[in-house]
Known about the structure:
The complex is a heterotrimer.
Chain A: H1 7-28, H2 33-55, H3 64-91
Helix pairs in contact in A: 1-2
Chain B: H1 14-36, H2 40-48, H3 53-82, H4 92-126, H5 135-153, H6 182-210, H7 223-254, H8 268-301, H9 309-323, H10 338-366, H11 375-398, H12 400-406, H13 410-440, H14 446-472, H15 489-519, H16 558-564, E1 577-579, H17 585-601, H18 605-624, E2 630-632, H19 634-643
Antiparallel strand pairs in B: 1-2
Helix pairs in contact in B: 3-4, 3-5, 3-15, 4-5, 4-6, 4-8, 4-13, 5-6, 5-17, 6-7, 6-17, 7-8, 7-9, 8-9, 8-10, 8-11, 8-13, 9-10, 10-11, 11-13, 11-14, 13-14, 14-15, 17-18
Chain C: H1 14-44, H2 54-57, H3 60-85, H4 89-119, H5 128-161, H6 165-197
Helix pairs in contact in C: 1-5, 1-6, 3-4, 3-6, 4-5, 5-6
Amino acid sequence: MKQLFPAKQVMGFVFSLILTAIALAVYFLDVSFTAGLTILIVTAFVQALLQLIVFMHAGETKDKWSIYGNVYFMIFIALITIFGTLFLFSWDM
Amino acid sequence: MEFFERFAIPHPSPVIYASMVVIALTVIAIIAGLTYFKKWGYLWREWLTTVDHKRIGLMYLISALLMLFRGGVDAIMMRAQLAAPDNKLLDAQHYNEIFTTHGVVMIIFMAMPFIFAFMNYIVPLQIGARDVAFPRLNAISFWLFFMGAMLFNISFVIGGSPDAGWTSYFPLAGNEFSESVGTNYYMIAIQISGLGSLMTGINMITTIMKMRAPGMTMMKMPMFTWATLVANLIIVTVFPVLTVALAMGTMDRLFATNFFTSANGGMDMLWANLFWVWGHPEVYILILPAFGIYSEIISTFSSKNLYGYKSMVASMVIISVLSCLVWAHHFFTMGQGAASNSFFSITTMAIAVPTGVKIFNWLFTMWRGKIRFTVPMLYSIGFIPLFTIGGVTGVMLAMSAADYQYHNTMFLVAHFHNTIIPGVVFAMLAGLTYYWPKMFGFMLNERIGKWTFWLLSIGFVLAFFPMYITGLDGQARRMYTYSEATGFGTLNMISFIGAGIMAIAFALIVYNVYYSIRYSPRDIGSDPWDARTLEWATNTPVPEYNFAISPQVNSIQPFWDAKKKGHVLFPDKLDKIHMPNNSGMPFILCSIFFVWGFSFVFAIWPLVILSTIGIFACLALRSFEKDHGRYISVEEVKETEEKTGGAKL
Amino acid sequence: MKIDHSQPLEYSTGQNNLNIFGFWIFLGAEIMLFATLFTTFFTLEHRTGNGPTGAEIFEITPVLIETILLLTSSFVIGLGIHAMRLGNKKAMITFFSITLLLGLGFLGFEIFEFVHYVHIGAGLQTSAFTASLLTTLGTHGAHVTFGLFWGLSIILQVKKRGLTPETANKSFIFSLYWHFLDVVWIFIFSFIYLKGMM
């Protein structure tokens, strides 16, 4: 039975619950918008990395550099799309 | 509108009625022909169900050529209308429909399948693979593209063509200003073929990253393969953006949502924004494979290794990133601030740097080479100065302050045709002539080919250079006429003559195919151009398994080394070959997609639901299917190799 | 077909490797798909027209329950893949079934949430904000729904055919998909709900 619950994944799960709890602080505690957004950005991206590495086994084969490269490239362009659009429509208009 | 009214053409004209008759007659003729010659079985077994990358490539090629003529007719009609001031050949509505379909057909249904044709046919051969990574998915990609194209093309006889421009900006494309189903066709047809493009992107990246012949490291890949890899990376990056934008546009039109409307908080410019987040990288998706083809051709016919291989690769990678950073230069005049305009101005101009690097690399490849002026080489040499002019005017357009003068004028139209025609169309024709012997086993006639090249180049210059002048003088694009007082008449007449010369050139291509089928010699071997890369190391016609033995690669030009330096290309012994089975599923699935799209356009919901169920049923069947492919035995391989003249065993 | 026994089943054939690699590329496209939805949402977030704002309609309880359900399901399917690598078919099927049940629970809550929004006057057609909100959530929800059917068909195949290179490959790819949906939800949870309620 025990071997069905590997420590690494259980730890990963516990950690992701903790991250969720930290993120909830922005709702339950009285934090400023900037501080709140910072907390959310950090917790969300750490959680995403956690899923990627611990649960999705992104780095387990010799293709790991292509896989990471692809994912990071997409995240990079995704952020450019999001912030570029906000730049045009919200911050510079 | 009433249900049945939607199917009628909103602006009928004798031309459209004539087209209906022609379409009906063509369909009847095809059906009758297939029945009379008993070719239904052949069509089904050899083409509709095929998963062979070469056959799929050829089907892309044929579709692209058909669409080239379809879009070309639109172009001639536009130039004819504008040839004289206050011309009455077309009315405003008809003109709107024509420039819209011209743009969509040329970009999505001509240029895209043309590059996919070469990617499909050439890339697996260049990397020494037996097929692409997902042959079945490849067939689905093609049929999705095909059904999307067909759906788009029936619009002008059923329900009316889209008329809001190929960019379909809201609010013009919204229900308020575009009542007919035309824009629904635009949204759905591009959606369907866009799905196919995305799948091709995934397929090609996986193929190139994982299926290269032994010894072919990333930095030993042929330049066309590199270009394909980078272009497909951009496809996978930006096509989802188009998917979402089209879906939201569809919802605005059919479900009364408020993404791009002028009420309830909707924002029309968001459509333009998302469209160009896809649209600008899209032009690099087209031009990079074209660059790849030029690289192959220039290297072959200069009898030299490609100059500056590493900088060629680096510049393409830089272009791929920059291409996603420039989209706002399509709407500098939207009203955003100077900061964002400056940012997008600078990124746009920066693209000229890696592109310039490539231009110089081609020139240095030719420098002191033994140049053979064949037809493909002529196109490549013509491309360099003409494309450079297009690029330089692009830098002019990139300056956001000056853009207020150029925006939406014929100057812009001249610019992008100046990049796309010498850039992409010349490359496609060069590639077509270059790879024709590999595909069909005989060469296209050189003399007719040279005539075609010169007519096309002269026609192109006559057709588009006057637009730079009229554009700077203020002639707006997408206007169906102009008054005599503007003085644009003469220059537009020159454009029309140029367009006519281009039409003759395109007709010559058809004649060349006919002439060459009849008279070209067939004993040309498998390497008629004395080329350098692996695709020429196969037999002609290429057997379905491509290479009887996996080639061993030592450099970026293994075939050249095998011919001149004694490199052993096929060191292994013959073994049985594993190949995928044919399947009718892709064709059936995509036919259901066609029904789905058609019923979506006309909001026939019961049929939408039925066909959606049909699509998922196909997916489920595929999931439960057991298909391990088949083996070709050693004896069979030997037999095929002898028949196709393979002396390499 | 050559089977390489030194690798886990899901990587044991050439085609299996291609499938997994190709699916990673597909996930890259999915990143861009959801990024575009987020782009739209962030642009239209405050354009509420005559409709309600996010702060007015969001409620923390159902959102938190949905989050916990999906996080747990992502963990459980990870256990399922671990069990598969141990060759324990029964445990694997159990874990996969629990995953799908949790997914079903998530979906139930989301449907409830949607009905509630429509009920309080925040339907798809109300404003640019509601359209982008419901489309983003709906796209994620549609992915989960598709995942439920997909997962079910994989469980049936594993049950019938056992752990073969093909079924193991499909299961692994499905797990990637499911984890990815969890990642997307984390971003929805953080930047649509929590940011909206902040």
